[in-house]
């Protein structure tokens, strides 16, 4: 079966590992070693068709800037995570997006499968980024936007279903 590769990227502490682990085995991690970088595989069904997704949980773009380009080269799809409670992490995904375009567009990819994720939606009182800002970014980038909570398990599955749909679509376009 075709293995789709996606990378989960974003600033340290936004919940990349919590989202990944929540999706992979349904549990919530209160604490996870920020230096651990791991890849997981999950077989699941999207639109009644089986798929196999490999998810690379990257270890924070702040600390390991040089690894960033390598992750981008190795991945076909991207889940860009920021924290709804930390505006600077929202600004950071814009820089990552620029790096993705710089690397992927010359390879002949017109559209790169991408999902923007605003995480920690359960922390209602601490919100610093408005829903409309995430939605606007998704419009500009022609991608999708979800607000998630790894803690309450809100909207986690739809994120990964969406990336699989986009990866399938990009396979079809490439074959034309
Ligand atoms: P990473 O560095 O991006 O992998 O972030 P982690 O997954 O390690 O999460 C960093 C911290 O944020 C941990 O203490 C998590 O428990 C917490 N966290 C992650 N997701 C959520 C969430 O949806 N809601 C809340 N309230 N905390 C979260
Ligand atoms: Mg992590």
From TrEMBL:
Pfam family, one: Ras
Top-level taxon of the source organism: Eukaryota
Compartments where located: Cell membrane
Database matches in PROSITE patterns: RAB (PS51419), RAS (PS51421), RHO (PS51420)
Main location as per UniProt: membrane
GO CC annotations, alphabetized: plasma membrane
Alphabetic keyword roster: GTP-binding, Nucleotide-binding
Membrane-protein topology: Lipid-anchor
Biological processes annotated in GO: signal transduction
Listed CDD domains: Ras
GO molecular function: GTP binding; GTPase activity
PANTHER family (UniProt xref): RAS, DI-RAS, AND RHEB FAMILY MEMBERS OF SMALL GTPASE SUPERFAMILY
Protein name as catalogued: Ras family, other
């Amino acid at each position: 079966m075709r293995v789709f590769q996606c990378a989960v990227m974003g600033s340290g502490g936004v919940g990349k590992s919590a989202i990944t682990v929540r999706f992979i085995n349904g549990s919530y991690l209160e604490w996870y070693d920020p230096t651990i970088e791991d890849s997981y595989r999950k077989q699941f069904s999207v639109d009644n068709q089986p798929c196999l997704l490999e998810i690379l949980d990257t270890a924070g773009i702040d600390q390991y800037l040089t690894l960033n380009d390598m992750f981008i080269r190795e991945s076909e799809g991207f889940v860009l995570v920021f924290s709804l409670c930390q505006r600077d992490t929202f600004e950071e995904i814009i820089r990552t997006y620029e790096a993705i375009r710089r690397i992927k567009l010359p390879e002949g990819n017109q559209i790169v499968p991408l999902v923007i994720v605003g995480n920690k939606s359960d922390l209602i009182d601490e919100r610093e980024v408005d829903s409309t800002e995430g939605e606007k970014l998704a419009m500009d980038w022609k991608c999708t936007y979800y607000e998630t909570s790894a803690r309450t398990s809100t909207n986690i599955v739809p994120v990964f279903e969406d990336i699989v749909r986009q990866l399938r679509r990009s396979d079809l376009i490439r074959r034309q």
